[in-house]
Amino acid sequence: MDYKHKGTLSKGGMVNMDEIKNAVELLLKARRVSALTGAGMSAESGIQTFRDKDGIWTKMDPMKWATREGYLENPRLVWEWYEARRNQVKNSKPNDGHRAMAEFEKIFGHFSVATQNIDGFHKLSGSKNVHELHGNIFRNKCFDENKILEELDESTIPPRCPHCGALARPDVVWFGEVLPQEVWEAAFDDAKNSDVYMVVGTSGTVYPAAGLAAIAKKNDAKVVIINPEDSEIDLLADVLIKGKSGEVLPEILRGLQAGK
Ligand code: OAD
User: Which of 91, 156, 204, 238 is in the most buried spot, having the most CB atoms within 10 Å?
Assistant: First the structure.
């Protein structure tokens, strides 16, 4: 493999190139690769994470408002909070990390991304095999019947379900709700059957999503974690890369392309 990049990544400062090389070596031997991504994946696109300082949760208490009960208590407040987040996503773009992920699909026999993010950026940047574990902020559904609503009359806020008149709500997973079953099962199977499992930009605090890394590890996958900070699941890592996904993932992609 003539992949001999030395030193550190330009903007990221102290990323250890040896760890990137270790990840590339594992990946070059792998056929089935999957990834779990979190808010850090979109941080370089300008989307706030949840738990970092200035994160989304510093302004709204999620345990109160990102719940069915919170929505019923003040639907307008919660709808407008999601509207603000939708606008933030609309005014942002996928970053180099998302684009590298999309390229991985072309390299491995199997590659999928299970994402906790609701911004849709993996699909927007060309990834096809994406499991949106926590839903998608641009999709809405009926609060009572759970049916997806394609068109909404936004002359009232929040809009109403055109079929039954119940409140419309974003099709995202709130606290206390279960993950969409088919999506979860697909992500679970991919974790279980991975040769290498990549964990990118997540604090590893929210279950069941965070548990996917342990499922992969238990089934003999090598786990590669990419995060500039410590996460709750670092102990699972075979390779721990302390760096930003928008810098590390393109570097891994270059390594894979050079090592083919
Ligand atoms: P968190 O906000 O908990 O964690 C974001 C992680 O991204 C942190 O570990 C950061 O260190 C890391 N990070 C920041 N910038 C990064 C970068 N440029 N590259 C890589 N990593 C970076 O977000 P999640 O782990 O995604 O769920 O949170 C999980 C879930 O908690 C969310 O999906 C949401 C929330 O409750 C629901 O709303 C259901």
Answer: 204
